Amino acid sequence: CERCKWKAQDADCVLCPTKTGIMKRTTGFRWAHLGGALWIPEVFFRLGEGREPVDIHWIKAKRWNKKCCFCKSNYGACMACSHHKCPKSFHITCGMKNDVFPE
């Protein structure tokens, strides 16, 4: 995996507090979960083939530091619930663990 290749097995995800899972290197030489990179609209891959590096620079300020309704952490970037008038936000990885996916 990429983290092993870069000797970064203990690296943290910049998008969420989850420590395990498939991560890709970001343009700033940090790490982001592949799931978060695929689902957060402002994130894109500089090189589509291989899906790296992950560019997180265009994530809107409103996504950062929101409290996740599942893990209760305000670290990283959260997605808002897609149901009309629902105030909840969650990390993509936390949503996946709880069978909740953005639409």
How would you describe this structure to a colleague?
The strands form 3 sheets. The protein has a two-stranded antiparallel ribbon with strand order 1-2. A two-stranded antiparallel ribbon has the order 3-4. Strands 5-6 form a two-stranded antiparallel ribbon. A hairpin with a 4-residue loop joins β3 (44-47) and β4 (52-55). With 103 residues, the protein is of the alpha+beta class. Helix content is 16%, strand content 17%. The protein is globular and about 40 Å long. The longest helix has 6 residues, at 34-39. The protein has helices spanning 2-5, 34-39, 92-97; strands spanning 23-25, 31-33, 44-47, 52-55, 79-80, 89-90.
What attributes characterize this protein structure?
16% helix, two-stranded antiparallel ribbon, alpha+beta, single chain, 103 residues
Q: What is the number of beta strands?
A: 6
Q: Given the structure, what is the number of helices?
A: 3
End-to-end Cα distance, whole Å, is 28 Å
The computed structural class is alpha+beta
What is the overall pLDDT average?
91
Strand content: 15-25%
Main sheet record:
2 strands, antiparallel
**Broad shape:** globular
Radius of gyration: 13 Å
Order of helices and strands: HEEHEEEEH
- Biggest sheet: strand arrangement: 1-2
> How much helical structure, as a percent, in the residues?
10-25%
Uncertain segments are: none
Give the gist of this structure.
By secondary structure, this protein is an alpha+beta fold.
Task: Describe the secondary-structure layout.
Layout: H1 2-5, E1 23-25, E2 31-33, H2 34-39, E3 44-47, E4 52-55, E5 79-80, E6 89-90, H3 92-97
